[in-house]
Amino acid sequence: MKRIIALALLGTTLTGCTNLAPKPELRDLPVAPTFPELLDPDGEAVAAQLSYREWFTDPRLEALVATALINNRDLVAATARIEQARARYRIQDSRELPTLVGTASATRTRQAAGSVPIGGIDGDVGATTFNRFDVGVGVSAFELDFWGRLANLSEAARAQYLATVAAQRAFYLSLIADTAATYYEIVETEEQIALAQATAESREEGLRIARLRLDAGVTSALPFGQAETLLTQAQQQLAAERLALAQLRNQLAVLVGGAEPESLPTGLSLAAQGNEVRLAAGLPSDLLLVRPDIIAAEEELRAARANIGAARAAFFPSISLTGNAGLSSASLSGLFGADGLGWSFGPSISLPIVDAGARRADLDLAEALAVEEVANYDRTVQTAFREVADALAGRRFLAEQVGTLEAGVAAQERIARIARLRYREGVADYLEVLDAERNLFAAQQQLLATRRAWLQNRATLFVALGGGFERAEP
Question: Which pLDDT score, from 0 to 100, does residue 43 have?
Fold first, then answer.
């Protein structure tokens, strides 16, 4: 028994002598070495060192993100895929070691030696009873991995597992960004509804005054019709915003994994959101270490290279080991004596001679998949660079738009106030009021939409730079 175990351990030691997988190549990044200065990439905070709780200032949004990270069904499924990949890796990794199977058996047999006639009746003579007890251990068809086939398959499974972990982390961050984006849209829509309601109420009052002036014969029916048009526009916008709000709440319910909790804190307005912290973009090469989607693509590439090594190993002979060792005795008391020891050892070698090009096709497939993974990796890096660059551009230019629109709304409010005064004094017709009211309403709507876009861009930049993971408590 000791001999067969020693032989199995020797075979394990000799495996993996050769690794036929291609070596990783040093390659230049498929992006510029730095972000353009125009995008203003400098800042004082590193996103990857901040959790979402430290970045978002709205307590309601923070609570919604926490709920989504617990209840979102897609995130639960992504986490379950990690366990599946870990199990597949453990299964594949176990094949590099021999499987020892222990057996034990006991049999009792009664056998008649012959039969003779006794008084005309047949009877048994010399019946014998046999006992047999066996115990042993064996190795069945254990492959000696001289060419690294099993080692490369195990490495591929490990890389797939790590890629699954990184993919789950990537979804974790995207869930934070999607929840924040949806929440900001909800806040904007609620403020758009409040704006439309206030505008509709103001225009209802304007319509009442226009009716009084029409009934008194001060004006014609044209100003009254124009006032009706203004009111219907506000009412139509109000209905559209209410529909959008209902759809956004349904979308948020899917993200957080159910209805919004009733105990959520009160949220902030769009104007009160955000903070003064500026994120540093760093260098594009920094993204390789903090972006889980890039890490996942890198692991997928590593798995593809390992599969090439396994496909190359198929061209070499496959050597397997089968062995058994055990003890056998006719009596249980003598089972473990030296005389009962028996063993067998049988190595085997196999190599397909004609396979109609199957092994060559397997290698071609593995190499083509590796080329695809290289392209996927480059594309992932380029996508990450673009997302950060776009968010940096948004940080600068959306902030400028917000400032410009705030000044524009203030100017439109003054114009609308003057137009109403001029109309009441009879200096201008109602068409001037109509244009001023329309322009003011549009400017206010655009300001709300741009503020929301600026907030969404902040969340996008934070996640694109690898921020959002909760840090472990010290």
Answer: 86
